[in-house]
Amino acid sequence: MAVRLLAYEVADLCLGKPPLSPLSAASATVRDAVSELKSSGESYVSVWSCDHSSPPRKNDCGECRCVGKICMVDVICYLCRDENLSSPSSAMNSPVSVLLSKAQGVIRHVEPSSSLLEAIDLILQGAQNLVVPIKTNSRRKLQKSSITSHNGREFCWLTQEDIVRFLLSSIGLFSPIPAVSIDTLGIISTEFLSVQYHSPASSAIGAISCSLADQTSVAVVDDEGILIGEISPFTLACCDEMVAAAITTLSAGDLMAYIDCGGPPEDLARVVKARLEERGLERMLEEFTISPNVPSNSSSSSDEESLSPTASLPRSGRYNRSSSYSARMVRRAEAIVCHPGSSLVAVMIQAIAHRVNYVWVIEEDCSLAGICDIF
């Protein structure tokens, strides 16, 4: 198994990769980041330390460096800070650097010749994205759409999802482990982020930020510990910055309904506006236009052997999302769940199918047992 994996290089995973839109850490603002996210259609935009207006220096390999990544969740959490609620316009004009994570090692630069095992080691050490320089005269011909160019240099961007997808294509090499249940493997974590259904959504801001950093989610549970849904950064990343107003004024349960309907339901849009006025946050109303939308029904996902991969939890009072406010790729509103007896390969397929790094683990009564992280 190790011999075969050693034969693969990082460059083998770069073929067909879409680019992440770059921003300059020196000049871009939060508003620029929002504009780039909306226009690019990507969930993330990369932030670089190089000056894109200057010509590259000959033989200077260290001039352009990716220093972080930003998604709409970073913007939303920043706007929800107490000091920014009364003046969102000023917050939007802040330098983009205020959104960058302080965590070390999230972004790592690697060479195209690095082995797949080296890439896996970096991911296990906490790296979420691997930036790969591509030489124009490389023997591997990459599609033009898979390149991000900076001052004459070209880069590809690999994620944890890319690594998992690649491993799934060779899942037979790991036999018999993929067929073993996640309970037997001991990979169900009982440490997870959660918020009560009726609690203010604003009380979950810290948890949302942590879940974004950990690439997990925030479970929404009732008083009996039953999983009702989730507030997922993967979902919020597909929304607009105006969701900050909803988080400021709604409960966790109402926030799920707000973001589940491809735009806020008319009644919740009125509630948000009224509560902003009550709290004297008219400037937030001026900055963001909150327009209601008409929800539509959609399906969701659940476990593997006994249920279809797209089946939903047998739980009433759940909300469904068919789309979001932006053109970016969206995923279903229902929490992705499995059971302790689910096999590892089934859980991996569920996560990849819904483009998340985790799957919630529930008991037969829908009580939340834990979470299974793919990495």
TrEMBL record:
Disordered: annotated segments: 291-320
InterPro entries linked to this entry: AMPK_gamma/SDS23_families, CBS_dom_sf
Listed transmembrane segments: none
Keyword Kinase on entry: no
Keywords tagged on the record: CBS domain, Repeat
SUPFAM superfamilies with a match to the protein in the record: CBS-domain pair
Gene Ontology CC: one annotated term: nucleus
Top-rank lineage group of the source organism: Eukaryota
UniProt cross-references to PANTHER family, sorted A to Z: AMP-ACTIVATED PROTEIN KINASE, GAMMA REGULATORY SUBUNIT, CBS DOMAIN-CONTAINING PROTEIN
Protein name: CBS domain-containing protein
Organism of provenance: Actinidia rufa
